[in-house]
């Protein structure tokens, strides 16, 4: 479904990703782990289409060339990114935002806009999933939300958008254990044979709740090791030292 | 400069959809301003002597005055002798019947989205339509008359209700108040008059729609609203003008009188032609608006200012009576080469008076936007309170936002709060919205509308939708 072939990304002339390869099949959940500064978030943004990146290589989703698309077209193609730092939009009602987002991708796909009634149903189900109260939808997008609320809002959006590929960038960061449980159970509920996920995390903790099919270790812009979920446990125990090689000192210092 | 930023600037560069002009047979006075011009206007309008005297007094005062220069505006010198001070569509309509309105004028208003046929109108809104110097029609007059509400052109009011006009004209904005107010007092051509009797809640929204059509003319209208004890009225004005290369002067005066426990809500959606991206053409919008609030009365100004080359206006409230309330909600957009110096004055005289000011300034392109506001607590203003919030949003690198609050407190029990913020539409906000599937243009409109929401919430429903549309249209452009 998702093919990433020899992906390189530089930001302002500095190479961050240095030839990343990844295959994600339908319904699979892949975890990407790695030390700080290894390029995890850059990978997520490269998939979503952030501006200011010099990108080379090939990324296709169901055969479509993602790198040639604007961010909104990637969204319409089924790419959803859960942000590590969700952005605040004061004065814009959360419900209005969600409905505009959903209708935007529906229009791009040549589908009819969702009716108000149908949308409310979809939104209500999503709210139940992340255990949010009704007033959540009437507040401004992320404005004044706690860290946990912001992350739950990302999962709520994912539930409404029903993406083909979800890229969750450090969704666990800044969460207490209760919020982590809610977020993880939301993610698990959204797993399905038609939906692939890339879960980016620094810690193994999240993977106690979201059991990945594959775990990849990203170090210094390359995937250096892949395995099943036991690899995460190994990392928990041993850290990234085994994979750092000659860059160990440098990367360790910046961590 | 990043790609996103360039796109933002493109977005801010919009076309003006009301720029057409209508070929009306118009009676225009030759350019120039002397005492004879003032006499000519009074004669054209067949005005009583007291009004001519009042005009002449204003003209004499104006001749002694100088243009104000304290605003942060660059204004090319205005040649007051090159302007024509009287222009009126020639086929004078019979004011009592809509069927008599010149079909060309009707068509012009249809094109503006303001149908003058009652069956097609926005329900529950009465409209006074003003073209160049005169009122061409007022709708829903009979319905209003049943409630005892007088809503008519200023000229009709002078003719039919001279005592009411004479009592209140200039009572809030004296003829010598400022240069532009004095000029208006001397040469004002028409405007709207509205009177709400004691205890009456006006059964519908009242609205005046201003259209400048002729070339080389100034528009000088006056609005006078008198709300008697315990009455209530909501009033809206809208304005557009054709796209022309020369600047046109619009110097209006609005006076509001809210007697004891009365409430006046005055909303403006100003969309005069702003000029082009090089600063050629556009309306000079120099307006004096002021209300006097008596005991327990409330005056609320809401303005959405997206048009005009230059906007100079400070809708104000004199909080004279105890416990009176003044409010000012403003959205001002300056894009292209537009300049806006706008804000409010809240003058607290009575005890326990309260005022609140919410100002949202948006600057794009080469636009310059200044909030200038005065909060004055007089010695008598025991326990008076003010809350001011000024937020500025910058779209692009060449525009500017300025906040200039003046605070004068002469009573130690008074409380004044001022909050100000300046922000930009972040690339991260746009990216976030686009990742959720929205086009950059839609995302921008959503973010800007969100920024203005506290003000839009104050507008009557139909006009809030219109204001959002207008703001989005003003930010529309070709996204590459």
Describe, in plain words, how this protein is organized in 3D.
The complex is a heterodimer of chains A (255) and B (480). Chain A has helices spanning 40-48, 71-76, 94-108, 116-129, 147-161, 177-189, 230-238, 241-244, 248-254; strands at 2-11, 14-24, 29-33, 53-61, 64-65, 79-82, 89-93, 140-141, 165-169, 196-201, 214-219, 222-227. With 255 residues, chain A is an alpha/beta fold. In chain A, the strands form three sheets. In chain A, strands 6-9-10-3-11-12 form a six-stranded mixed β-sheet, with helices on both faces. In chain A, α4 (116-129) crosses α5. Chain B is of the alpha/beta class. Chain B has one domain (2-475). Chain B has a ten-stranded mixed β-sheet with strand order 4-3-7-9-12-14-17-20-22-24. In chain B, strands 13-15-18-21-19-16 form a six-stranded parallel β-barrel. At the A-B interface, α2, β7 and α3 of A face α9 and α10 of B.
Question: TL;DR of this structure?
Answer:
The complex is a heterodimer of chains A (255) and B (480). With 255 residues, chain A is α/β, with parallel strands linked by helices.
Chart the SSEs and their pairings:
The complex is a heterodimer of chains A (255) and B (480).
Chain A (H helix, E strand, L loop, with lengths): L1 E10 L2 E11 L4 E5 L6 H9 L4 E9 L2 E2 L5 H6 L2 E4 L6 E5 H15 L7 H14 L10 E2 L5 H15 L3 E5 L7 H13 L6 E6 L12 E6 L2 E6 L2 H9 L2 H4 L3 H7 L1
Parallel strand pairs in A: 3-10, 3-11, 6-9, 9-10
Antiparallel strand pairs in A: 1-2, 1-4, 4-5, 7-8, 11-12
Helix pairs in contact in A: 4-5, 5-6
Chain B lengths: L2 H9 L14 E3 L6 H10 L4 H16 L22 E3 L13 H9 L13 E7 L2 E5 L2 H6 L3 E4 H7 L1 H7 L10 H9 L2 E7 L8 E7 L9 E7 L4 E9 L6 E4 L2 E6 L4 E8 L11 E12 L4 E8 L4 E4 L2 E4 L5 E10 L4 E4 L2 E4 L5 E11 L3 E10 L7 E11 L4 E10 L5 E10 L2 H9 L4 H12 L1 H4 L4 H15 L5
Parallel strand pairs in B: 3-7, 6-8, 7-9, 8-11, 9-12, 10-13, 11-13, 12-14, 13-15, 13-16, 14-17, 15-18, 16-19, 17-20, 18-21, 19-21, 20-22, 21-23, 22-24
Antiparallel strand pairs in B: 1-2, 3-4, 5-6
């Amino acid at each position: 479904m998702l093919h990433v072939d020899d992906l390189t990304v530089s930001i302002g002339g500095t190479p961050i990703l240095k030839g990343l390869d990844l295959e994600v099949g339908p319904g699979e959940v892949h975890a990407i782990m790695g030390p700080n500064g290894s390029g995890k978030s850059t990978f997520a943004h490269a998939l979503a289409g952030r501006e200011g990146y010099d990108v080379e290589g090939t990324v296709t989703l169901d055969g479509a060339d993602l790198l040639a698309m604007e961010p909104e077209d990637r969204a319409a193609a089924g790419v959803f990114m859960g942000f590590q730092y969700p952005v605040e939009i004061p004065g814009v009602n959360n419900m209005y935002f969600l409905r505009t987002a959903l209708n935007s991708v529906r229009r791009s796909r040549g589908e009819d806009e969702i009716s108000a009634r149908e949308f409310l149903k979809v939104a209500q189900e999503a709210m139940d999933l992340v255990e949010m109260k009704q007033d959540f939808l009437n507040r401004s997008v992320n404005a004044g939300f706690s860290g946990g609320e912001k992350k739950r809002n990302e999962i709520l959006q994912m539930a409404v958008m029903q993406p083909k590929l979800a890229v969750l960038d450090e969704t666990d960061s800044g969460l207490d254990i209760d919020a982590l449980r809610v977020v993880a159970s939301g993610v698990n509920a959204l797993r399905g044979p038609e939906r692939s996920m890339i879960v980016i995390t620094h810690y193994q903790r999240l993977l106690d709740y979201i059991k990945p099919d594959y775990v990849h270790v990203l170090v210094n812009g390359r995937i250096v090791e892949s395995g099943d979920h036991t690899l995460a446990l190994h990392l928990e125990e041993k850290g990234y030292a085994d994979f750092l090689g000659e860059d160990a000192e440098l990367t360790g210092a910046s961590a | 400069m990043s790609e996103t930023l360039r796109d933002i600037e493109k977005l801010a560069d919009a076309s003006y959809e009301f720029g057409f002009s209508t070929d009306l047979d118009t009676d225009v006075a030759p350019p120039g301003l002397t005492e004879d011009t003032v006499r000519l206007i009074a004669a054209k309008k067949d005005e009583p002597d007291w009004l001519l005297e009042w005009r002449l007094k204003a003209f004499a005062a104006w001749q002694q005055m100088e243009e104000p220069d304290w605003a942060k505006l660059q204004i090319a010198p205005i040649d007051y002798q090159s302007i024509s001070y009287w222009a009126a569509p020639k086929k004078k309509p019979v004011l009592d019947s809509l069927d008599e309105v010149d079909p060309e004028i009707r068509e012009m208003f249809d094109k503006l989205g303001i149908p003058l046929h009652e069956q097609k109108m926005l329900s529950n809104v009465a409209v006074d339509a003003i073209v160049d110097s005169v009122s061409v029609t007022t709708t829903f007059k009979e319905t209003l008359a049943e409630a005892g509400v007088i809503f008519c052109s200023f000229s009709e009011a002078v003719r039919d209700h001279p005592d009411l006009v004479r009592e209140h004209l200039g009572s809030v904005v004296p003829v010598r108040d400022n240069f532009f107010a004095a000029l208006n007092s001397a040469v004002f051509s028409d405007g709207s008059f509205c009177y709400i009797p004691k205890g009456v809640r006006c059964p519908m929204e009242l609205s005046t729609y201003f259209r400048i059509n002729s070339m080389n003319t100034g528009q000088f209208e006056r609005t006078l609203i008198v709300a008697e004890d315990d009455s209530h009225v909501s009033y809206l004005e809208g304005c557009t003008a054709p796209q022309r290369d020369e600047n046109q002067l619009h110097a209006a005066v609005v006076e509001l009188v809210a007697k004891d426990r009365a409430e006046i809500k005055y909303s403006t959606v100003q969309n005069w032609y702003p000029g082009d991206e090089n600063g050629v053409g556009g309306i000079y919008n120099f307006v004096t608006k002021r209300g006097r609030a008596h005991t327990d009365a409330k005056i609320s100004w809401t303005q959405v200012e997206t048009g005009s080359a230059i906007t100079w206006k400070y809708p104000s409230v004199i909080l004279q009576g105890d416990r009176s309330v003044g409010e000012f909600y403003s959205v001002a957009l300056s894009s292209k080469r537009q300049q806006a110096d706008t804000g409010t004055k809240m003058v607290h005289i009575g005890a326990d008076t309260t005022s609140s000011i919410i100002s949202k300034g948006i600057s794009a392109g080469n636009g310059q936007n200044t909030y200038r506001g005065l909060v004055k607590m007089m010695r008598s203003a025991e326990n008076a309170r003010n809350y001011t919030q000024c937020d500025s949003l910058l779209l692009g690198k060449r525009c500017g936002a300025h906040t200039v609050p003046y605070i004068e407190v002469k009573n130690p029990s008074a409380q004044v709060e001022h909050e100000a913020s300046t922000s930009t539409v972040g690339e991260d906000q746009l990216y976030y919205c686009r990742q959720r599937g929205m086009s950059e243009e839609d995302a921008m409109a959503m973010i800007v509308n969100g920024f203005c929401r506290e003000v839009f919430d104050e507008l009557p429903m139909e006009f809030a939708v219109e204001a959002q549309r207008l703001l989005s249209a003003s930010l529309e452009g070709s996204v590459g």
